[in-house]
Amino acid sequence: MASSTTSHDVSAQDVEDKKKRKKKGDEVDESELLTVPDGWKEPPFTKEDNPRGLLEESSFATLFPKYREAYLKECWPLVQKALADHHVKADLDLIEGSMTVSTSKKTFDPYSIIKARDLIKLLARSVPFEQAMRILQDDVACDIIKIGSLVRNRESFVKRRHRLIGPKGSTLKALELLTNCYVMVQGNTVSALGPYGGLKEVRKVVVDTMKNVHPIYNIKTLMIKRELSKDPELRMQSWERFLPNFKPKNLSKRKAPKKKVVKKEYTPFPPPQPESQVDKELASGEFFLKESQKRRKKIEEIKVKQAEALSKRQEERQKAFIPPKEKPVVKKQAVAISDKIDVQAIKEKVKKAKNKKLGAPPVAEVAQKDTANGKKRKKSKL
Question: Which residues contact 129 (CB under 8 A, 6 or more apart)?
């Protein structure tokens, strides 16, 4: 009996505690519970959190293309140095064309091997070492989007990939600024590196672009969201009224022309029964002919058709040899030369030319002209 009473008391206390918590929860503002405080940062994972290390060794390997061999050979000492801080081993096999990362006895962070795996994947996908190194930070992740299988036609795939990059990389740069991510388009994959929220937006833009949705629509939406997030009053409200709604337009589909339905006049009588082949033969008298006569008649019909077709062909061939109709030549009336040319005016020009003196004028005449011109200038000045 005592045990039953105590259990009943405990259950009653639990109910009261729950009611008190609910009241407290109602008093606390929901926005404070859902939003992360400004400047909040997760504490780093240290050796004190896992002093005994890992139980077993784990490793990851990835292949890289031939053209990346020279670059990886140069930057591999830097990769080993960066991973040594996390007590992770890194090996480069140039013969097989592979990179391998594995944990050691000193490794204390279990997630460091996942970060190292992502690092070698990014290096194999043509991401530079300076950017790939950011994956070792706690608040940075990566996403490798395979776009090769999203579009069947190779030409349309190349066009859409170029559309994602934009003229001189402007579209890709705008996407990077809005999402705070580094985006690298290489071959059949898109490698993205940055915060988790930005990676989600990058994947959406890339997949939509491959589905023939222009990236400018998604970029415009991201710009509006960025401005709305600055307003603290709109954080808990729906943003659908502010976001643009772009309707897809299919220009290839044309409207089918409407067919005019002609209404037939109603008749209570059924249509007449069509004549059979036997009825037609009986009407023409062919039914009573012998088989040999029927064959002969068919052969004659075929010969007549062939003769008609042959005559049509010959007519078409003869058209090329028919000369075109020549236009009649119109004779122009001869006009008298004396009517067009003014002989008297020409004679006067010749007389004037004879009176003109050829050659340079004498020196005395030139001097007289110069003195006369000088006097005129002086008078004008006065």
Answer: 75, 78, 79, 123
